[in-house]
Amino acid sequence: MKTGKTAMQQRSWTLGAAAGLGIAAAAIALVPGGPAGEPAHAQPLAAALPAPPADGVMGFVVQEFVPPVIQGADACPQGTALKIKEQYLASLPEDERNRLARKENEPEFTKRWQASVVGPGGTNICSQPDMFERPLLRTVQSRSAWGIDLDQGAADQGCEHEEFAAPDGREGIDNQEYRVMGCTPEWRGKDGIAGDIASGMKQFHASGEWTQVILLRGVDSLVHDDDVEVIYANTADRPPADTKGNFLRGASFSVNDTAPRHRNVLKGRIDGGMLTTAPQDIWLAQTWGQGGARDIRGTRSRYDFRRARLRLVFQPDGSLRGLMGGYRPVFDVIQSPAIGGVGAATTAGIDCAGILATLRKYADGVRDPKTGKCTAVSSAMRVTAVPAFINDLAVPAGGKPE
Amino acid sequence: MIRTRLSSWALGLSAAALAVSAWASLPAGRAQAEAAAAPAQDPNFRITGMRRLTEAQYRNAVADVFGPDIRVAGRFEPIVRPVHELIASGARGSSISPAGLEQFDAMARLVAAQVVDPAHRSQFVPCTPRSEDAADEACARRALEPIGRLLFRRPLTGSELAFYATVAGRAAESTRSFGKGLELALAAMLVSPNFLYVIERAEPDPAHPGQLRLDGWSRASRLSFMLWNSTPSASLLDAAARGSLTDPAQLQAIAARMVASPRFEGGVRAFFSDMLLFEKFEEMAKDPVVYPYFNQDVAQALPEQMLRTITDHLLARDGDYRGLFTTRRTWLNRPLGAVYQVPVGRSQGWVPYEFAAGSDRAGLLGQAGFLALYSHSGRSSPTLRGRAIRELLMCQPVPNPPGNVNFTAVQDTANKATPTARIRLDAHSTDPVCAGCHKITDPVGLTLERFDGIGAYRATENDAPIDVAGGMDGQTFQGADGLGKALAQSPDTTMCLASRALEYATGRPAEDADAVEALMGRFEAAGFRIRQLFLDVATMPGAYAIPASAAPAHTVALGK
Predict the structure, then answer these.
(1) Cβ A129 vs Cβ A339: under 8 Å
(2) Selection from B79, B81, B51, B84 nearest residue B510 by Cα
(3) Is the dihedral of CA A46, A49, A54, A56 positive or negative?
(4) What's the average model confidence in pLDDT over A81-89?
(5) Chain B closest CA to A248's CA: distance in Å?
(6) Cα A32 from Cα B95, distance rounded (Å)
(7) What gap in Å lies between CA A187 and CA A258, rounded to an integer?
(8) Is any Cβ of chain A less than 8 angstroms from the Cβ of B289?
(9) Which of A236, A250, A391 sits opposite B341 (nearest CB)?
(10) DSSP letters of A149-166?
(11) What is the 3-state secondary structure (H, E, C) of A33-45?
């Protein structure tokens, strides 16, 4: 069931952006990052923004690209999603559960729950998740999530879903990935501290394996510009960082569109200090581990965001902050533990089959014309980018970008 | 004094060389007797100086003699720089400690093992031994003689060749390997003082009866190490053998070819690295919290940027030396691009770059290498910068501060009452004891205060605007641009370079004012072109004359 739609949000992207993202809205724009309900990193006033460079070219390196998690007890009132071990214990009769929970029975307990993640013929719950029937995960129960209204004007391509409201007041937020994954310990973390995914992804983006850059061309004004070319791409160059891991401003990067890296050319516009892009599929590099294709380290996959958009706010300090949203094929969400195989289940306790089943249940985009079922979940990433010099090698000398 | 030291080094090295390399059971008495007999074979054999090879010269020599694929690995004992002099002068008085010699020995063995390994042996052994399992003196001699000539930068004497052939033979017998014997003889050559030191020998000067001049072999080394920072080539040694290097016209032609060669860049790099104290880069440290842009990649790039700027301006563009203080042209790599906050197109390597007019990045003094080197780990230092400019670029020594100075005021960078270096130094310099020297250094260094302790641009310090007014020798100016122009116009900078070039060539501070003046005159007439300066130094007869203080009273014995 679709909820919270307004007439404005049903309009085309161009109209929506023009009408809904005006200067007044930008003046109170809240950018994800802080605790729910708090004004986030910046509230740019268009008047406070500097003029763009004379050549209209602006570059950025993406410092942060992580799922935006809103902390608070209301999101997961029953607690975080259970790990396989906990699920196994919970599935047992009380007497047996109490017996196995005793310290002296730990070897037996470990043997039994770990046996539950493997199947015949060397299969396991993460490498072959379709072969295992698992209970659905605990999902986010609150109405609040960061994200973008992805399905405006294209409802026929999606499936029924319940939408969120963003802490900044925007309705119609599509982020079913957060609904499914937002109660996993890896996302939610503990005691209000971000989960492993936040720190892990920061490392990946600092490595030069996943590092992303944004190049804007044709920027006439940071307040309003109908036509901005946006190159959202990967670079093989490692960002220099300070002692806290923050990327340094003013470093140079070359755009690298040679596999496994990608270069996406997007059509953007600026309204009230906010850059938005028209829906378009976006691919970005994702390499699990670093260096070499030995076992799972160096295994390459990619981010695949369908009908994706950027929604980034220019900050007076020169940085960009905001969101990227799109639809992700459901299996992509468990790509990492699937590559990890049985180890992801027995060591990290990740219930790949349960996650995949839950993702399928909440899938809301990219309908398969044969089955009629949706194959992707709406998703959002928090994006923070700092000024950088971007050398777009895909541009022929003296020519226009391809 | 020099002669005394010379003898003690020679004896010390001789013993060490024999101990570590001629490990075979050579009768020590016989070996030393042979060594002592060697110089006596040549009546003109007079050693007037010994200059230890620098690390770069050692590496270049090995690469030139054996090929660039021969790996040199080890720690080089540093040559101590005498106060206000060049390392080239320090090399003349540099000894090698037992620990340092152990390092040289390990490197020698590593190099020798590679030279005689199956991949390289055929290049250096022109014969097939009668047996691989036994000694073959004739074949060993054929291999060692040409190598020895290149390593010792002169032909081996008969007794030297016999000595190394004996070492090879004894080792081959002990190891039952001709190749191993050759390897050990070669290792012994590489720890010989004849290789580790450039030994300068004198001969009577026919043009000035009663006086001495450098002999041809020593001239070959002088030319090669001064101009190419490496050992003389076989053809240069041939020229020495023909007597060409003592003939002024032929010397002129050979030196002219050498300064026109691309290899002259190596010599220019080595000279400026010495003149500008680049060894300090190796110990430079910055506080990463204060200067997050400073990292290992930047540290490595800083001297290289300066050297690229120097060689590009002076050699590739054949520019006026004075332009090094004003040019905005330089080279950048990615790590430096972040420090300068400018784009660098290539991910790897260096790209040419020209700083924008108005950037105040004027010449070498506007480059992060100079600015970072003459700063403290957490703050800039107008005093260190001013002193470096006076001492290194103008040859004007500045006295050290007295031992009991209170630096509290200048170090208190967080004090809001004294937000800028100028204000802090003003407070510090109220002490008349300090003021005398600070008046010499600070008005020069304060013009560079737009650049912080790693050379990054800043418009303010502690939110206070930075005043870059300064002056030097009665002239006032603003910023690095003004300072660069003042240095370019100062005759002291070009005179300083000329005297340093002469010192670099001879390994002695240039004390002959007339010679420096004459050199300066030719330098000026040539539009301050570095090639002409080095060509003049390489061909001026005075540079090859033996100062009375260095003339030997007796001959000394060197180990093999």
Answers:
(1) no
(2) B84
(3) negative
(4) 92
(5) 7
(6) 66
(7) 31
(8) yes
(9) A250
(10) ---TT-GGGS---PPBB-
(11) CECCCCCCCCCCC
Calpha distance B517→B526 (Å, rounded):
14
Partner A contacted by B300 (CB < 8 A): no
Q: What tokens does B54 get? A: 């620098």
Determine phi and psi for B265, rounding to 5 degrees. Answer: -60, -40
- Using the predicted structure, report yes or no on whether residue B35 has a pLDDT greater than 50: no
Per-residue pLDDT band at A341 (split at 50, 70, 90):
confident
Share the mean pLDDT of chain A.
83
Out of A236, A241, A251, closest to residue B337 by CB: A251
Instruction: Give A35's pLDDT tier (boundaries 50, 70, 90).
Output: very low
Distant-in-sequence, close-in-space partners of A268: CB < 8 Å, separation ≥ 6: A216, A227, A228, A229, A230, A275, A276, A277, A278, A310
For residue B548, give the nearest of B219, B244, B208 by alpha carbon: B208
Beta pairing class for A389-392 and A252-255: parallel
Would you call B338 an interface residue with chain A, using a CB distance cutoff of 8 Å? yes
Whether residue A293 is predicted with pLDDT greater than 70 in this model: the reply is no
Cis peptide before A387 (omega within 30 of 0): no
Specify the 3-state DSSP secondary structure of A185.
helix
What is the value of ipTM here, to two decimals?
Answer: 0.80
What are the tokens at A328? Answer: 């992700």
**Are B338 and A251 in contact (CB < 8 Å)?**
yes
pTM passes above 0.95: no
What type of residue is A102?
A: R
Sign of torsion over alpha carbons A201, A207, A210, A215:
positive
**Quick check: B355 and B373 in contact, CB under 8 A?**
no
Cβ separation B345–A252 shorter than 8 A:
yes
CA distance B197 to B9: 11
pLDDT of the residue at B46? 84
Q: Are A243 and B289 in contact (CB under 8 A)?
A: yes
